[in-house]
Amino acid sequence: MTQSVVVQVGQCGNQIGCCFWDLALREHAAVNQAVLIDMEEGVVNEILQGPLRDVFDTKQLITDISGSGNNWAVGHKVFGSLYQDQILEKFRKSAEHCDCLQCFFIIHSMGGGTGSGLGTFLLKVLEDEFPEVYRFVTSIYPSGEDDVITSPYNSILAMKELNEHADCVLPIDNQSLFDIISKIDLMVNSGKLGTTVKPKSLVTSSSGALKKQHKKPFDAMNNIVANLLLNLTSSARFEGSLNMDLNEISMNLVPFPQLHYLVSSLTPLYTLTDVNIPPRRLDQMFSDAFSKDHQLLRADPKHSLYLACALMVRGNVQISDLRRNIERLKPSLQFVSWNQEGWKTSLCSVPPVGHSHSLLALANNTCVKPTFMELKERFMRLYKKKAHLHHYLQVEGMEESCFTEAVSSLSALIQEYDQLDATKNMPVQDLPRLSIAM
Amino acid sequence: MSIVTVQLGQCGNQIGFEVFDALLSDSHSSQGLCSMRENEAYQASCKERFFSEEENGVPIARAVLVDMEPKVINQMLSKAAQSGQWKYGQHACFCQKQGSGNNWAYGYSVHGPRHEESIMNIIRKEVEKCDSFSGFFIIMSMAGGTGSGLGAFVTQNLEDQYSNSLKMNQIIWPYGTGEVIVQNYNSILTLSHLYRSSDALLLHENDAIHKICAKLMNIKQISFSDINQVLAHQLGSVFQPTYSAESSFHYRRNPLEGFKDPALYTSWLKPVNAFNVWKTQRAFSKYEKSAVLVSNSQFLVKPLDMIVGKAWNMFASKAYIHQYTKFGIEEEDFLDSFTSLEQVVASYCNL
Question: Model-level pTM?
Fold first, then answer.
């Protein structure tokens, strides 16, 4: 059995992490290894005073009083160097408790200061200290209506680190999560005859969980991300007829080291109380996974180019259901010429709580490009005017070159996606093979 | 004459279980048209070939289970024990904590050398238990990391250490539309390596067996369990004892040797119509037609050609290559594999 260590950084990271552990405990009563990091005591203290206080080893947390002021430079350079040794010590302790440490899951947001700056600083630390352990990063990207003015700066500075030191990144944005919740609310409140939704089955629900506090606005959204992480690791934790371990995710979905951004979608969002699930419902689950409304990032994979796709199925679904749906959906999807049948599949017998089956789809698809391009545009608008730049430059170790290098790194990445997109509608040609003299 | 089975990876272990289950339940099934004496001889022969002496009357499979993560092996061990009819040996397993990540290079270059001694020791112990040992039956898939990479490594070792015994590899050909994205790479690396060390490669395509389940058996929701059972049924009928026309009461012991004999075979299994998708690769052209097996060498060409083509396309773009070079499999190794498989295709085409 392998273990993973969850590293929750910053307010966003810790709130999501908290939801994650809550749901994870619902699925098993396991030993939990987590390192909680926040530069403001508030959030972590709240977690430790709540019902989950026994879950976390209080020796595994690091807090400071002041916070990072939404400044990547403070998070990365100041707190990074200040706390590096302490943090490394916590990581080592966590790793020692693990029989076979396979993966670090880092949860953070890109737009703020701690999660973004310190979170990405840690990636380098982990890479140096534990080079063989995978680094999976769940990053919350700022939406257009983000209230942090400097979020484009923070995000792009963080992206350079993600490009260079993460094995796999799952980008998610708040707007998508919000839209999904609106959809669910609409469904639940529509009161259509015969469509009662099973309450526990909402992908946003935390019923049955330990936390019984009144719902906070981000709770539902955080639960979606928490469910994503649970489903990602389900095949490694439970049995099934076609297992998929975490190291297989990277192996199959990352054809070139720099192209490691995966768009995720979770279905179903809820289960109807109708007990008999005819194949049509099951097939609907597969169709939904590819619709842009179900993606956790504002992206439309169906109309962009796939480099690779993974389908992780849980529950009472067999290989024939999987094959039938792949055959059905394949014609409407475009795959890159050298990976025309690039599907990675897994079947896990244990469904998530409240569902009889579920599907997590991970796509390495050029549809991430618009998110990156928008981010770059917002960055340039600020940077051209040098707005707020002094807050960053006054931090020791920060220079303008940090900014220009970060933008170049992002531009190079966007260019890679551009080149792939250019091949989109070209006919697939078989390359000449080796000819053998007989 | 006994056969030692080596089950590698999730696929190998899941199938291995079904095979032993099928063999034992066949040997316990009704004797049909033969006499009681013949039936007893048949049962004894089957038991000796695949199972070792009973402990409390429960036969123990002559098998070595190898996987780089524990879930599947644990499942198979408990399923066998639950059946009450047979079980796996307590010390016949080799497990690690973390799998091969669908990476042939990891299975071959990292897990192989690292665990060579332990795995070969377990195999040797199993071989020593046999009164007269005839060969190995190695079950593995081509698409993943352990079955394919570690399977190739172990087969090579078996060739080195047991060069006089026959080695037959049961290989599962993956579904055309992917179970694993890098399955074509893993497949060509496996096949080219096995070509050098295996005596016979028995191939089964998931797509083909799936069709059998759907069209001939009318199963609505086909699971891997169904697929593995069909496969086990076919394999069982190949391996069960048969006798040659020359000496009616003498069982031909070694199925692999038996294939060389052009004499007519009698199948002792219930007649089933599911044999039309049986393919064998004649590594050394020793296989003949029989009532059970139909070996048609040119059936191989199309699927092999397809896999080589897809792998070549992917290789030309260099996609995923960094995952292999990380563990010591270089571009030259890929080219070697391509070359040897193109030669196979060409030879079959020239037949």
Answer: 0.85
